[in-house]
Amino acid sequence: MRIRVVDYVGSLGGGVRFCAEVVRALTDSHPEEEFELVSYGTCLERYRDVLRQKGLTLRLAEVRPRNAVLNFRNHHILGGQAGRLAQKLLTPLTKWHYDIPAEVFADCDRVWMPWIHWHRADAGCMDRVVGSFHDTIVFDVSGIVPLRVANAERVNIARWLASDACVVVSSRSTATRLGGLFHTPASRLSIVRMSAAHASGSSRRQVEPSWSWISSPFLLNAANTNKHKNHEVLFEGVAKWGTRYPLVLTGEGSDLAIGRRGLYLRQRASRLGLVAGRSLHPLGYVPDDVYHVLLKRAWALVVASKAEGGGSFPAWEALEGGVPVICAETSAVREHLEWLGAEVLWFHPDRPEELADRLAELEQDYDRFKARAVTQRASLRQRSWKDVANDYWGLLTSGNDTNPHQSSSDMSP
User: Fold this and answer.
1) pLDDT in tens, 52-100
2) Is 3 helix (H, G, I), strand (E, B) or coil?
3) What's the CA gap between 287 and 270, in Å, rounded?
4) Distance between CA atoms of 34 and 398, rounded to whole angstroms?
5) Coil, strand, or helix at residue 194?
6) pTM of the model
7) pLDDT digits over 127-153, tens only?
8) CA–CA separation, 7 vs 30, rounded Å?
């Protein structure tokens, strides 16, 4: 059986890791099958690097999308006034969606698209696709993308839902939201929950020698700087708490060095009294093995996101590591952590004063919360990437039924 994995977005962090882990588990469980990953340009190189770091050998193919002209992700190459001018001039010309050539769907039995967002395909090609839909954030949080782009994506997702593709979501919350937006019946969707059992990779790079703060308590936030990740409330809540310990940022763009969003967040942090290099350490994206060192040493993890699709990778990883978690309460994350059987400290994502209160509560009784974080690891629900891959394998081998089964992962706690 020949299975083609197709992704032209390659979102750093959750997106690429999700794809790489599922592919690793699929190839381990089904070595007799043929797997190939199709992408293009920077995205393909990103996959090449991540797969190499994870020691995974996979056939890669570069196929140019039909409309590959400009990629909106390159707008942040320049900083300062020149970068802002370039962004203003280029945005109207940008191709946010990728039109997949029909040849990508030829000469294979099934296609798995780990990220159907921003991908457009001809209706006649969709019947062999198993496509993962992760979240409705672009429709729920204004300002993530221009309105014209959000409207175009709404049309695109409606086409996917009306097609013969098997569409997969990772939570009941997302399925419910799709029902509200597109009148999609629950029976149209399959639910396959995620895993957080990420391999740290084969390299063992040491943290930067200049990170002297790593030997003392610090708060950790792992998120890109998209608007829904809610850095504004994160910064304000930490500042209201008094910044007892420095805040460390990881994730794409979290170095706050370039781009309109990064510069805005850096200025906002400064106005709140967070000083880069002292009370704020904006690291940007770090490799998995470095991130796991940071997570292991963190005093606590803060998840401030106001919208997610299937839960929170950072929260799950922290829980598995016995690190206390303070988490913004959203429907998908609440569902996810209840499914795990986890206890965390909750705050409203729009109320920085609640975040400050939770930080103070944790500080005042840290030994108890830390002990709870450590002991609850034994009772957390376990789910491996092999479990995820087995669910996807059932979908890939079930023919063209748009909802062949609800996965075994979709069980109430």
Assistant:
1) 887 888 999 999 998 865 444 433 334 444 444 444 444 444 468 999 9
2) strand
3) 27
4) 17
5) coil
6) 0.83
7) 999 999 999 999 999 888 889 999 999
8) 21
Neighbouring residues of 28: CB distance < 8 A, sequence distance ≥ 6:
386
* Token couple for 339: 């499914």
Round to whole Å and give the CA distance between 154 and 156. Answer: 5
Alpha carbons 176 and 186: distance in angstroms, whole number: 7
Distance CA 101, CA 63 (A): 8
DSSP line for 313-368: HHHHHHHHTT--EEEE--HHHHHHHHHHT---EEE-TT-HHHHHHHHHHHHHTHHH
User: Cβ(244)–Cβ(237) under 8 Å?
Assistant: no
Distance CA 244, CA 298 (A): 14
256: left (phi over 0), alpha (psi -120 to 50) or beta: left
| CA 14 – CA 251 distance, rounded (Å) | 10
* Burial letters 358-370, b for 16+ CB under 10 A, else e: bbeebbeeeeebb
* CA-to-CA dists, residue 397 to 30, 130, 191, angstroms: 12, 10, 16
Rounded-to-integer distance, Cα 321 and Cα 228, Å: 25
Residue 197 banded pLDDT, cuts 50, 70, 90 = confident
If pLDDT is split at 50, 70 and 90, which confidence band does 238 have?
Answer: very high
Alpha helices in 200-328 (DSSP H): 231-241, 259-271, 288-297, 313-320
Q: Which domains does the chain have, with CATH numbers?
A: 2-195+384-396 (3.40.50.2000), 212-379 (3.40.50.2000)
Q: How far apart are CA 107 and CA 408, in angstroms?
A: 31
- For strands 280-284 and 110-113, give the pairing: unpaired
Residue 151: count of CB within 10 angstroms of its CB: 12
Are 309 and 136 in contact by the 8 Å Cβ rule? The answer is yes
Asked if 234 contacts 254 with a C-beta cutoff of 8 angstroms, the reply is no
pLDDT digit string (tens) for 168-191? Answer: 999 999 999 999 999 999 999 999
Rounded to whole angstroms, what are the CA distances from 214 to 67, 231, 299, 308?
A: 45, 21, 10, 29
